[in-house]
């Protein structure tokens, strides 16, 4: 087996080249995210355990080697406030460092320059001195630790503790514990943005970030299946008021559709449209169709927060990496359920993070081979996704084995059909197809809520869920009775105590189809639903509506794809992608390219052609562009046509 070692700067230079050429011309007046942001994020290589020293070393490499190619952001990902001690893990409780106002501050042992109330000020100064911009990851709302401590709320407009209606307001007044983040239930919960105190708390967070010198915020557990449109909207307003321009990014992107994204794209600068992307071919392949859908919906480079907004395909997990900081409990619990039966509260927590000790990293190389890495980078660039490198920096290593028999395809771009399956998803309640649920009564004691809408070719019986009155902890909790009056739990089977979750209680990767998540029934907004008279089934957790969709099983796992774009000087970029497991000849007529390029007439045109990755000069082409592409590989052509 032949081993290829590719210097990181060369890899990212290619990506920078592509985005520089394919991106539109910059505006004369600086705006936020005028082109897709580029930089480095610590998550894929360090999980949450990164230290100040490690972060600044990585920033120095970005400054020296990638800043000349447009990479300007360095972002410390989640849990920078968590103490790295025994017992601390992703969803642990009681290990975070908070100030007197319940706001997260850096762990002083990992971030020593934060001592004395400085926060990230000193780190930001050093990053700015390198010619870079500094970013941080934040979670939704308020931490469970601050809620339990019932900390006072800072009023940044008046100074001191927030007071209204003759009393001082505290964390327990604004925290919505029934709306805890689905995949970090011990970590964070939404705040009530209808309350002045809730808005004051969020304002105090982002004003503090600006005071620290933050240039980029990645806001997590507020989008996709975890949508919190109220918090996104208010944070966007706060960011407009700040003297410091901060690029606003949303995460994660599980279950995101163009219809859902249109409600937030004008409020932010970038937003994830997939689950977490890791270094597997399945994750890479899962991005092709979703990228196509957002391009067709004209979402790429749409109007955003005081600038533009960009669909985000997630970080590039290349170079030296760690492992995901969580385990997919879906498989674990399925095994436990089948073998041992249901697990009660004294046993395993349903669908949650595995309480591992600190996930150290980086400690391994990327699992994608060189062709797969090039495919990922080319798709990200052609789709104008933000480029956030996720790995550590010595080298990127790929392998190349023997090629298989060449399969000749017709001289046009095509895709292969896949087997179909129904999946439960979420969409904006403004989407007309959401109004397709109805009640099917069997007797006075048993009702089902069934999907009656169109979801492609009919496969078996319509999807139905058993209706059960929402659980309440006690008769004394009148506020919750009022808040969830008319809401129901939905069960897959009668009498089984597991209910439908709006958002999975584990983090999905890009390749995982969301088929419907069930966990032990409890009083939780993530499990509460309301069927309105129009037939929409609304989640109390996100405000999104349930749908049933027909999707391709193992989507993107085979076939060929192509992207076409024009550059600033009129050049044409054509990318061929081979998703098959064998080497494939891919061809297209030059004249057919015009079908994707309005205003272009390529009949009889002569085009000078070169391929970027191989640097091969194809000379002048007049009729057909054709090349053999290896398994999971790609070819990227630049055409200059008469």
Relative strand content: 25-35%
Helix content: 10-25%
Number of helices: 14
**First-to-last CA distance:** 43 Å
Shape summary: globular
Q: Quick one: biggest sheet?
A: 9 strands, mixed
Radius of gyration: 25 Å
Total number of beta strands: 36
Mean pLDDT value: 83
**Low-confidence runs (pLDDT<50, min 5 residues)?**
1-14, 23-29, 327-358, 395-419
Query: Biggest sheet: strands side by side, in what order?
Result: 13-14-12-11-10-4-3-2-17
Question: What is the structural class?
Answer: alpha+beta
Describe the structure.
By secondary structure, the chain is an alpha+beta fold. Helices cover 21% and strands 26% of the residues. It contains 14 helices and 36 strands. The strands form 11 sheets. The protein has a 9-stranded mixed beta sheet with strand order 13-14-12-11-10-4-3-2-17. A 5-stranded antiparallel beta sheet has the order 30-31-36-33-34, with helices on one face. Strands 21-22-23-24 form a 4-stranded antiparallel beta sheet, with no helix packed on it. A hairpin with a 5-residue loop joins strand 30 and strand 31. Helix 1 (8-22) runs parallel beside helix 13 (370-382) and helix 7 (196-212) crosses helix 8. The chain is globular, with a radius of gyration of 25 Å. The protein starts with a strand and ends with a strand. The model is unreliable at 1-14, 23-29, 327-358 and 395-419 (pLDDT under 50).
């Amino acid at each position: 087996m032949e081993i290829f070692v590719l210097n990181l700067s060369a890899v990212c230079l290619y990506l920078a080249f592509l985005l520089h050429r394919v991106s539109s011309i910059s505006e004369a007046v600086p705006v936020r995210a005028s082109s897709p942001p580029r930089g480095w994020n610590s998550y894929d290589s360090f999980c949450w355990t990164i230290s100040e020293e490690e972060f600044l070393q990585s920033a120095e490499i970005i400054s020296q080697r990638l800043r000349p190619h447009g990479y300007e952001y360095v972002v410390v990902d989640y849990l920078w406030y968590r103490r790295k001690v025994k017992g601390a893990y992703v969803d642990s409780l009681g290990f975070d460092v908070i100030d007197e106002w319940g706001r997260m501050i850096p762990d002083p042992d990992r971030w020593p320059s934060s001592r004395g109330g400085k926060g990230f000020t000193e780190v930001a100064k050093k990053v700015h001195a390198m010619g870079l911009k500094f970013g941080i990851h934040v979670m939704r709302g308020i931490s469970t630790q601050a809620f339990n401590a019932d900390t006072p709320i800072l009023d940044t407009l008046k100074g001191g503790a927030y007071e209204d209606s003759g009393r001082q307001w505290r964390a327990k007044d604004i925290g919505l514990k029934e709306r805890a983040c689905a995949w970090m239930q011990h970590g964070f919960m939404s705040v009530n943005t209808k309350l002045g105190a809730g808005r004051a708390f969020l304002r105090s967070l982002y004003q503090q970030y600006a005071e620290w010198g933050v240039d980029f915020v990645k806001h997590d557990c507020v989008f996709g299946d975890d949508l919190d449109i109220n918090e996104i909207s208010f944070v966007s307003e706060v960011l407009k008021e700040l003297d410091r321009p901060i690029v606003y990014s949303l995460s994660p992107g599980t279950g995101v559709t163009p219809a859902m994204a249109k409600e937030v794209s004008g409020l932010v600068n970038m937003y994830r449209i997939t689950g977490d992307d890791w270094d597997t071919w399945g994750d890479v392949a899962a991005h092709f169709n979703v990228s196509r859908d957002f391009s067709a919906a004209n979402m790429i480079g749409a109007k955003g927060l005081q600038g533009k907004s960009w669909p985000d395909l997630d970080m590039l997990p290349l170079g030296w990496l760690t492992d995901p900081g969580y385990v997919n409990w879906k498989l674990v619990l399925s095994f436990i359920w089948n073998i041992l039966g249901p697990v009660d509260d004294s046993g395993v927590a349903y669908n949650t993070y595995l309480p591992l000790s600190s996930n150290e990293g980086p400690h391994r190389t990327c699992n994608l081979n060189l062709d797969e890495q090039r495919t990922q980078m080319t798709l990200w660039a052609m789709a104008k996704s933000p480029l956030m490198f996720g790995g550590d920096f010595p080298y990127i290593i790929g392998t190349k084995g023997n090629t298989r028999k060449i399969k000749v395809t017709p001289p046009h771009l095509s895709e292969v059909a896949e087997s179909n399956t129904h999946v439960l998803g979420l969409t904006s309640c403004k989407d007309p197809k959401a109004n397709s649920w109805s009640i099917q009564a069997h007797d006075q004691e048993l009702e089902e809520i069934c999907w009656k809408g169109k979801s492609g070719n009919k496969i078996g019986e319509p999807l139905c869920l058993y209706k059960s009155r929402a659980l309440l902890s006690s008769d004394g909790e009148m506020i919750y009775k009022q808040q969830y009056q008319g809401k129901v739990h939905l069960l897959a089977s009668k009498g089984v105590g597991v209910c439908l979750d709006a958002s999975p209680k584990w983090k999905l990767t890009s390749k995982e189809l969301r088929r419907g998540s069930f966990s032990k029934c409890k009083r939780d907004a993530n499990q509460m639903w309301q069927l309105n008279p129009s037939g929409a089934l609304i989640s109390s957790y996100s405000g999104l509506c349930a749908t049933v969709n027909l999707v391709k099983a193992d989507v993107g796992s085979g076939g060929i794809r192509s992207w076409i774009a024009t550059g600033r000087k009129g050049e044409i970029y054509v990318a061929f992608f081979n998703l098959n497991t064998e080497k494939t000849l891919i061809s297209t007529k030059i004249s057919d390219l015009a079908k994707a390029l309005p205003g272009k007439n390529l009949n009889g045109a002569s085009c000078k052609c070169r391929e970027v990755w191989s640097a091969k000069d194809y000379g002048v082409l007049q009729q057909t562009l054709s090349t053999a592409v290896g398994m999971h590989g790609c070819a990227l052509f630049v055409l200059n046509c008469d």
